[in-house]
């Protein structure tokens, strides 16, 4: 159940600077939720600033629409609850209901990897196929020693796709980005900047989906498709798990607020001897597993236990 912290860091994790900002600005608990959410999706998740602002706007609209339904479709009550002009409430309701009728969704953040990362292995194999007996590297004749040097830096079970030089690889990224923008209206389509290109390239290389090989007998680097799918690893993989956990925890706490009978809020504050911290967490892990095994009943009422334990901030009770 518990997982050891990964040593490989893609980005700087939240730390002293984040806590110092909160302390200096005397941020409220409600504002801390927004602050840590922004850290999660922007600093760790890699979402753009503009995407976060658009998604926050979407969340506010959905909150208005939810209140509208709870108030028996009463626009005036909804307007009073959220201090929004009735005409603005009407506009929001119209927008949400039009999208629902069309089977579409509002602008929002996605906790899935963007299409230009997920789709790259498929498009690469389709556009640049390779069959046994063919040369994987077009327009470059390799000697036996050069061939051996190149393949020594790559895994044995390579996908059926030829190698690309830098220009071909960048063209593939550009094509994938263009495909990813088709679903957006023209006003919201994002051009492929040099910074975004480098970001995409980094993500693909870091995940192990693509391997870059720099060899002295070629003037430009060679890129090889080394996995048939894209999946993040290390800290980024944990980021998406964290976002899922935060969303689930928010729902559980809302159930606790309305006094759902099967929801328990637990909080324990204590001090522990430094040399016993790992032992205490391991014991807790074992206790929770034994507890869940004891009460598990196939086909019974579905339950979930979500827990995080760690160092508390100074001044917390």
Spell out the blueprint of helices and strands:
Layout: H1 16-25, H2 29-44, H3 49-70, H4 75-82, H5 86-102, H6 115-118, H7 120-127, H8 144-151, E1 164-165, H9 166-181, H10 194-207, E2 210-213, E3 222-225, H11 235-257, H12 277-295
Antiparallel strand pairs: 1-3, 2-3
Description:
With 317 residues, the chain is mainly α. 52% of the residues lie in helices and 3% in strands. Strands 1-3-2 form a 3-stranded antiparallel sheet. The protein is extended and about 75 Å long. The two termini are 27 Å apart. The relative contact order is 0.10.
Provide a quick synopsis of the model.
This protein is mainly α and 317 residues long. Helices cover 52% and strands 3% of the residues. Strand 2 and strand 3 (222-225) form a beta hairpin.
Low-confidence stretches: 1-14
**N-to-C SSE string, H for helix and E for strand:** HHHHHHHHEHHEEHH
Side-by-side strand order of the widest sheet: 1-3-2
- Tell me how many strands there are: 3
Mean pLDDT: 80
Beta-strand level of the residues, as a percent range?
under 5%
**Radius of gyration, CA atoms, in whole angstroms:** 25 Å
Label the structural class.
Answer: mainly alpha
Sheet having the most strands: 3 strands, antiparallel
Shape: extended
Distance between the termini: 27 Å
Helix content: 40-55%
> What is the number of helical segments per DSSP (H or I, 4+ residues)?
12
Can you give keywords for this protein?
317 residues; mainly alpha; three-stranded antiparallel beta sheet; single chain; 12 helices
């Amino acid at each position: 159940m518990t997982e050891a912290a990964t040593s490989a860091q893609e980005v700087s994790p939240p730390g002293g600077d984040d806590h110092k900002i909160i302390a200096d600005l005397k941020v409220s608990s409600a504002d801390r939720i927004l602050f840590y959410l922004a850290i999660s999706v922007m600093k760790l998740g890699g979402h753009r600033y503009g995407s976060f602002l658009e998604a926050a706007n979407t969340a506010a609209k959905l909150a208005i629409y939810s209140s509208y339904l709870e108030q028996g479709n009463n626009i005036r009550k909804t307007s009073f609850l959220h201090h929004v002009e009735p005409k603005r409430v009407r506009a929001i309701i119209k927008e949400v209901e039009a999208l629902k009728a069309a089977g579409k969704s509002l602008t929002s953040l996605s906790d899935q990897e963007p299409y230009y990362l997920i789709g790259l292995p498929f498009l690469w194999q389709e556009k640049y196929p390779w069959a046994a007996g063919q040369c994987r590297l077009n327009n470059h004749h390799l000697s036996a020693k050069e061939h051996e040097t190149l393949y020594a830096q790559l895994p044995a079970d390579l996908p059926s796709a030829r190698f690309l030089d830098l220009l071909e690889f960048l063209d593939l990224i550009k094509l994938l980005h263009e495909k990813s923008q088709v679903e957006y209206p023209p006003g919201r389509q994002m051009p492929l900047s040099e910074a975004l290109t480098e970001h995409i390239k980094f993500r693909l290389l870091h995940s192990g989906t693509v391997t870059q090989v720099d060899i002295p007998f070629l003037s430009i680097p060679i890129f090889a498709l080394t996995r048939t799918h894209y999946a993040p690893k290390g800290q980024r993989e944990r980021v998406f798990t964290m976002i899922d956990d935060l969303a689930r925890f928010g729902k559980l706490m809302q159930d606790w607020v309305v006094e759902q009978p099967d929801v328990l809020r637990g909080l324990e504050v204590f001090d522990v001897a430094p040399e016993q911290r790992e032992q205490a967490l391991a014991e807790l892990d074992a206790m929770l597993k034994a507890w869940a095994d004891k009460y598990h009943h196939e086909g019974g009422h579905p339950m979930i236990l979500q827990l995080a334990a760690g160092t508390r901030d100074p001044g917390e009770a």
